[in-house]
Amino acid sequence: MKGVRLSQLPVGKPAIVGSIDLPPARIDRLAALGILPGIEIAVEQRTPVYVLRSEDALLALEEELARGIFVHPESEG
Predict the structure, then answer these.
(1) What percent of the chain has pLDDT over 70?
(2) What Å distances lie between residue 24 and 10, 62, 74, CA to CA?
(3) Spatial CA neighbour of 43 closest among 8, 4, 68
(4) What pLDDT does residue 77 have?
(5) Phi, psi (5° rounding) for residue 13?
(6) What local confidence, expressed as pLDDT, does residue 36 receive?
(7) How far apart are the first and last CA of the chain?
(8) What is the per-residue pLDDT for 76?
(9) Residues in the chain where the model's pLDDT stays below 50
(10) In what order do the strands lie in the sheet with 69-73?
């Protein structure tokens, strides 16, 4: 299962990156920012850009990138 698009993840809900479905140059850019399969991220805000929390970093991404990242939301409790 591919998971859900990061762009559909509720604000504040932690999730694990499962896969990235973007052109190779975009995947390389995300990897340089530390966005890789297996890491935990959460959406902090959606507008005017997506702001993600990853470990101790905050990253701003355009919507196109957020739609290409598939995540697995973490279970509560």
Answers:
(1) 96
(2) 27, 17, 27
(3) 8
(4) 44
(5) -85, 120
(6) 93
(7) 22
(8) 54
(9) 77
(10) 4-5, 69-73, 14-20, 40-45, 50-54, 57-61
Do 3 and 72 touch, CB atoms closer than 8 A? yes
Q: What does R_g of the chain's alpha carbons equal in angstroms?
A: 11
Structure tokens at 62: 């355009």
Candidates 32, 34, 37, 30; CA nearest to 66 is 30
pLDDT of residue 2: 79
Structural contact between residues 61 and 44, judged by C-beta atoms closer than 8 angstroms: no
pTM here? 0.89
Peptide bond into 14 cis (omega under 30): no
pLDDT at 1: 57
Domains of the chain with bracketed CATH: 4-73 (2.30.30.90)
Whether the CB-CB separation of 45 and 11 falls below 8 Å is answered with yes
